[in-house]
Amino acid sequence: MIDCRNSIIHAARLALPDDQRRALATACLDAARTVVEEAPASSFGWFSIAHSSLALGDRETLNRALSLSQATGSNEGWIARYRVELVEGNRSLIDPDYLPRHRADLATLVDNIWVYDDFLAGIYIRRPESRADMTDVIEQRENVIQRRFLYTVDRARRDISNAPS
Predict the structure, then answer these.
(1) For residue 16, what pLDDT is reported?
(2) Domain check: are 71 and 151 in the same one?
(3) Any alpha helices (H) in the chain, and if so which ranges?
(4) 2: domain range?
(5) C-alpha angle with apex 36: 100 to 96, nearest 5 degrees?
(6) Are 45 and 36 in contact (CB under 8 A)?
(7) What's the pTM?
(8) Residues 93, 123: one domain?
(9) Is residue 57 pLDDT above 60, yes or no?
(10) Of these four, 37, 88, 97, 157, which has the most CB atoms within 10 Å of its CB?
(11) Residue 13: CB partners within 8 Å, gap ≥ 6?
């Protein structure tokens, strides 16, 4: 399933023709559906359905599958990271009803700040529309987590400022 996710991402970056991208996304969707039929609690299977549905332009299935992925893997940081990345890159397609689940995923990542600090700082810097959600989550955490997050954001901003043009 991870190969499907990566292939869909690379197909878009390589600007493959639409028919080839659709064929790839459809094959991935079929594979993911087989996984969740056999293992309905597969959070990555549901995520793969969401990711494939995004590539196919199926907003309804995207949101339903995202919700099922979050419900079946609500405390798993690795899959929460994938869901957060998908939501942050496609907020306009995400149903408002899903956003509390998205904040729960952010909380999962924040609670593991030493693993996901650079990822979270990147979202905070690159996506101003996400800052309120992230700030709400961070402010509910212990001071040590808040300081780590602020340190990482500050470091990332300095790295961006010092990067060659």
Answers:
(1) 73
(2) no
(3) 2-13, 18-38, 43-56, 59-72, 77-89, 99-110, 113-126, 131-139, 143-162
(4) 1-110
(5) 20
(6) yes
(7) 0.89
(8) no
(9) yes
(10) 88
(11) none
Q: How far apart are CA 35 and CA 81, in angstroms?
A: 20
> What's the CA gap between 120 and 90, in Å, rounded?
16
Q: Are residues 116 and 102 in the same domain?
A: no
Decide if pLDDT at 9 tops 70.
no
Query: Would the pLDDT of 66 be above 70?
Result: yes
115: nearest Cα among 77, 147, 87, 153? 77
Q: Is 135 within 8 Å of 129 (Cβ atoms)?
A: no
Tokens 């800052």, residue located = 131
- Do the Cβ atoms of 86 and 101 come closer than 8 Å? no
109-162 pLDDT tens trace: 999 988 999 999 999 999 999 999 999 999 999 999 999 999 999 998 888 777
**Are the beta carbons of 116 and 109 closer than 8 angstroms?**
yes
